Fold:
Amino acid sequence: MKTPLESGSVSALHDIIQFLTTLKEGDEERVWGRMVEKLSAATGAEAGTYYVYLPQKRQLMPRYSLGKAAADIEATAVDARTGLCGWVATHCEPLLVEDAYQDARFLREVDQLTGFRTRTVLALPLMNRLELTGVLQLINKASGPFTVEDLKLAQSAVAVASQTLRVFTLEGMVDKVTSHNASILENLGGGFIAVDLHGRMILCNPSAKRILGLNPGMPMNLPIDQSLSACPELASVLMDTLATRKTAKRQDLWWKQGNDTRVLGYSTLLIQDPQGRLAGAGVTFQDITHVSNKDRG
Structure:
């Protein structure tokens, strides 16, 4: 029974996946450089290059090269409309070439410049969904032409690496947005408290703790009635918002802080996740006791 990848390829892919799981940041040049190294070793290639695609100039710029002519390769930009790698970049399709000098697309000038003799080639596009980001090329398999199995291994490794880099990119974006929002909440003059769908407190900014007299180091993820035992009326507002899915604007709430009667001006909101599904409820509020007393006076 045939398998998608031969046992040696499976072992090589496993090694590549292990490498990717140890990454702590998505440095594209480092990742694709290591892919060139690992795929060259797995396929028995004499040389390999990672090209980044520069759409404004329509060029493939070598960012990492392995082999005897590596220094010369890394100093030479390639027109993305010419050569084998240019064909891969233009068509966004992989390429297997058994004899480079018999292929009309091959640029012999590169060999003349480097003094390296290209025989066989495996090249494939690097994509971010539908966007071309580069090309990875392997040259001269020691045991003969590159095989379909070699191509499957390279495609599988590139797919996993691309997904890993995409995750790093998304995580970076989320971290930036989260940090930005956290900064806004931290510096918000009014109080803000949020609960998840189970009624557990997930956010409580410093102003909320100050206004309600809560412990600055209070833990999160506790039931809201437990977290807001000092102000159960506000806990009820949040739970009612979750239950009814209805929000309120510019409402007043009277509550007891010790022996004093305090007044909060509040508005509620529903919180959605990135897919637009309900994820919780929140309340913004300010202490308007002095304003209410003036009105009554």
Summary: The chain has two domains: 7-169, 185-296.
